[in-house]
């Protein structure tokens, strides 16, 4: 089975800090995604990557950047954390070109920005 | 941004009862419809990926139907069990740079009462 691992389950940071959220997948998937989940809202796409060093903005990229230097690792960076970035962050990966191109998710990082 | 709506937002069902809920999505430029189950403290897991109008999929006691012309999908659970308690997410997909970009609904939170 595909395993998507997020480096931290819970994280507490202060306003203005630079925050790195790491995600690693072990099944050689080309596509990787970062979502955030807030109460009453669906999962919202922040950024995605379809290949090494490639990235595309999602629906809410403001205040975030990403890095994909290796195929298995996709990092989400909060350049200067703000309280409105307190959220559950989910990483996912998928294998493109399959008829059943489903997402495999990590277990999430609950980030609190104080 | 595609607008994906799920109803109801939450649902309480007695153990043994059957239930169903709805996902509505824009029918234009449809590519695929995904259903995920997200149990508390776990990763969301894919249930179904559906692409064809009239498609029906089944996994144990859970089944789903798809109407791409009118833009809706139903998820059915027969004989609900406590382990079915979870948030059920649907997402509509379109293709960007060869990757499926998903827009999620806000989810239906299902609680099974023993």
Describe the structure.
- The complex is a heterodimer of chains A (114) and B (114).
- Chain A is mainly beta and 114 residues long.
- Chain A is built from no helices and eleven strands.
- Chain A is globular and about 40 Å long.
- In chain B, the strands form two sheets. In chain B, strands 2, 4, 5, 9, 10 and 11 form a six-stranded mixed sheet that branches.
- Chain B has no helices and eleven strands.
- The N and C termini of chain B lie far apart (39 Å).
- With 114 residues, chain B is mainly β.
- The chains are: A mainly beta (114), B mainly beta (114).
Question: Level of helix content of chain B?
Answer: under 10%
Q: Helix segment count of chain A?
A: 0
How much of the sequence of chain B is in beta strands? over 45%
- N-C termini distance of chain A: 37 Å
- Give the C-alpha Rg of chain A: 13 Å
Biggest interface, CB < 8 A: A-B, 30 and 28 residues
Q: What is the N-to-C succession of helices and strands of chain B?
A: EEEEEEEEEEE
Number of strands of chain B: 11
Number of helices of chain B: 0
Oligomer: heterodimer
């Amino acid at each position: 089975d595909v395993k998507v691992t997020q480096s931290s389950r819970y994280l507490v940071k202060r306003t203005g800090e630079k925050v790195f959220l790491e995600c690693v997948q072990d099944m050689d998937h080309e596509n990787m995604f970062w979502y955030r989940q807030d109460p009453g809202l669906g999962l919202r796409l922040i950024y995605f990557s379809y290949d090494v060093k490639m990235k595309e903005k999602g629906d809410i990229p403001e205040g975030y950047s990403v890095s994909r230097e290796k195929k298995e690792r996709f990092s989400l960076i909060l350049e200067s954390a703000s309280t409105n970035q307190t959220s559950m962050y989910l990483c996912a990966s998928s294998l493109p070109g399959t008829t059943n191109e489903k997402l495999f998710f990590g277990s999430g990082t609950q980030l609190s920005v104080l | 941004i595609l607008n994906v709506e799920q109803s109801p937002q939450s649902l309480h069902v007695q153990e043994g009862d059957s239930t169903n809920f709805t996902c509505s999505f824009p029918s234009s430029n449809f590519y695929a419809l995904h259903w995920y189950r997200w149990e508390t403290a776990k990763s969301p897991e894919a249930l179904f990926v559906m692409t064809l109008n009239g498609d029906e999929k089944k996994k144990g006691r859970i089944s789903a139907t798809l109407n791409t012309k009118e833009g809706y999908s139903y998820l059915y659970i027969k004989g609900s069990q406590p382990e079915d308690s979870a948030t059920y997410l649907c997402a509509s997909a379109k293709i960007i740079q060869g990757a499926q970009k998903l827009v999620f609904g806000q989810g239906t939170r299902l609680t099974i009462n023993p």
